[in-house]
Amino acid sequence: MMRLNVILLILTIGISTPGYTQEWKAKEGHIMSKWAKEVNPETVLPEYPRPQMKREQWVNLNGLWDYAIVKNDLERPENYDGKILVPFAIESALSGVKERVSDKDLVWYRRSFNIPAGWKGKDVLLHFGAVDWETTVYINGIQVGSHQGGYDPFSFDISGALKKSGPQEITISVWDPTSNGTQPRGKQVTKPNGIWYTPVTGIWQTVWLEPVSSQAIASLKITPDIDRETLTVFTKGKRMETTGYLVKLVALDGKKKVATAEGNLNGPLTLKVENPKLWSPDMPFLYDLEVSLTKNGKAIDKVSSYFAMRKISLDKTQDGHERLFLNNKPLFQYGTLDQGWWPGGLYTAPSDEALKYDIEITKRSGFNMIRKHVKVESARWYYHCDQLGMLVWQDMPNGDKSADWRGPSGYDGREMNRSAQSAHQFRKEWKAIIDANYHFPSIVMWVPFNEAWGQFNTVEIINWTMDYDPSRLVNGPSGGNFFPAGHTVDQHQYPGPAMPDVNIHAPNIIEGRALILGEFGGLGLPIKDHLWQKDRNWGYRNYGDKDELIGNYKKLVDRIPDLIRKGLAAAIYTQTTDVEGEVNGLMTYDRAVIKMDVGKTKEISAQLFNQ
User: Fold this and answer.
1) HSE on the CB side for 389, CA within 13 Å?
2) What pLDDT score does 10 carry?
3) Per-residue pLDDT at 29
4) Nearest Cα residue to 118 out of 210, 48, 206, 53
5) Is the CB of residue 595 less than 8 Å from the CB of residue 546?
6) What are phi and psi of 353, to 5 degrees?
7) Rounded to whole angstroms, how far apart are CA atoms 93 and 344?
8) Tell me, what DSSP letter sits at residue 109?
9) Which runs of E-coded beta strand occur in 273-424?
10) C-alpha distances in angstroms, 204 versus 131, 333, 443?
11) Radius of gyration over alpha carbons of the chain, in Å?
12) Against a cut of 0.85, is the pTM above it?
């Protein structure tokens, strides 16, 4: 164990390029969070990055890498420009670079690493949490794979490219056209302004190595059924071969075994979980799950996981309104619009503690749900939501152009036409995002489209999502343009509040769907010394001090109970934090100032759960 710890430390620090020495330092020019000021290149984001399927042995490759920015029609660089701190995007201050790149550029990364002696005879997997957007990976000059997609994890088996001994070299090229392309990109644009933010290019989640046998557990798909008191686990192997392999599942409540099952790899197994403890925001109980793989009685792989017994559904209450149900009981869902941006790291939180902090403040403020807005987080963010009991609505990051949209919410069914390649990429990445995050019980709703951004083939995409994951709800286009599809009709209204009008809008759109206020509020308060930029800071309504802000917030929330009685099933306040020029957060962008007292905010919110 001591030897492995030493190797981990060496790998995290990195090996300098010959003839080049540079100390890392975050770039100045913008505000920073307190966690950003504590970032150390030797221990950056050291936590195991995949809590839903954890192995004991792994090596973290976060830390200092060489980087170069070159034109995309040139060969890989012989000389590099300096050091970049992975996993922070090259445009971020915490990368130590803070340079913009264009769609005519490639960003190259390089570093050396060693394979621990104890991994001899094992296959070595190279994992990426997320890289934006098109990634090509070389080990010792040999291309081992490529990937397109900025929000889903991916891996390569690099065993065949490794040298027998000595340092190994990894080089990576990344191309990201940002808003000059049609790929999913969320709110990144080449010219940030208003609600559109700084580009994020390259590696922005943890990079790591893991040893496995030639056959191993590649993924787990876990589906609870509280009505039948069962848990179905589909185990997928690294290879399709199943002869002689046996999977064993053990479900645990603490140290107590509550269920076991055995069966074949590459198929479903069902556990009987009697009298299950149900997961909810009030009691976010998680069971542990041990998964082992044997061949002819010999253990060859083992991963630890977890699960929750919970059910999300749509049903009518006695008042005749469609409501969102959790564990067969109606629950009003009240959340914040959460964009997941950080002043130092852009898409990447500076620490796991920081990542968790936003969720903790949101819950302490009286919210039971977060809408993750046109961004996908690292696995650890959802893990924290699972642990803390925070419901999540997960957006698809938008891309391409926008359909005609006349706002605040459209009922006349407009959408755009995408090229075949653009449509293919959307479907490919949306499926990958759902697959990667299917595990997390906190996710209770998928949101394929927002305010007509990139909206196309609406009914087909929504129906596909409902069929692909029937265990969750699927939002109709959030904020319009509406079609008769999905489980909800989701109106946006600033400052609001408001709800879809059942009297004037098409009955085929309203009927059988929950009525949602998908965005409202946006009340702004700029705080001196905690602003991303000196001017052009805005909210949908701006106020002068904290008392004025929370007073007007209360006026908005006090109007929601009447809407609930009329059928409103959920509401989402904009937003968790300030983001760049937007100053309408519960907190400042650097998280240094909580603008509305969490106790008062929770007290104001409490009335929404007693209707």
Assistant:
1) 14
2) 34
3) 87
4) 210
5) yes
6) -60, -40
7) 5
8) E
9) 287-295, 298-307, 312-316, 322-326, 329-330, 333-338, 369-372, 391-395
10) 6, 31, 22
11) 24
12) yes
The string of pLDDT tens digits covering residues 323-381 is: 999 999 999 999 999 999 999 999 999 999 999 999 999 999 999 999 999 999 999 99
**H or E element, residue 354:** helix 352-364
Distance between the two ends of the chain, CA-based, in angstroms? 56
Cα gap 449→458, rounded to integer Å = 8
User: Among positive and negative, which fits the CA dihedral 63, 66, 71, 75?
Assistant: negative
> pLDDT under 50 in the chain at which residues?
1-21
3-state secondary structure of 200: coil
Give the helix/strand (H/E) hosting 82: strand 82-86
Q: For residue 290, how many other CB atoms are within 10 A of its CB?
A: 15
Selection from 261, 265, 290, 286 nearest residue 276 by Cα: 286
Please, what's the largest Cα pairwise distance for the chain?
A: 75
Contact yes or no for 121/110 (Cβ under 8 A):
no
Q: How far is CA 269 from CA 16, 249, 355, 496, in A?
A: 48, 8, 34, 47
Helix, strand or coil for residue 172? strand
Task: Judge whether 600 and 590 are in contact, CB under 8 Å.
Answer: no
Q: Distance of alpha carbon 374 from its chain centroid, rounded? A: 9
365 vs 51, 377, 444, 570, 597, CA distance in Å? 27, 21, 20, 16, 8
Query: What pLDDT shows up at residue 507?
Result: 65
pLDDT at position 405:
86
pLDDT of residue 506: 63
Q: Report whether 344 contacts 91 (CB < 8 A).
A: no
Nearest to 306 by CA among 343, 348, 273, 265: 273
Give 249-268 as a DSSP string.
EEEEETTEEEEEEEE-SSEE
Which residue in this structure is represented by tokens 């130092």? 344
Please give the pLDDT value at position 22. 58
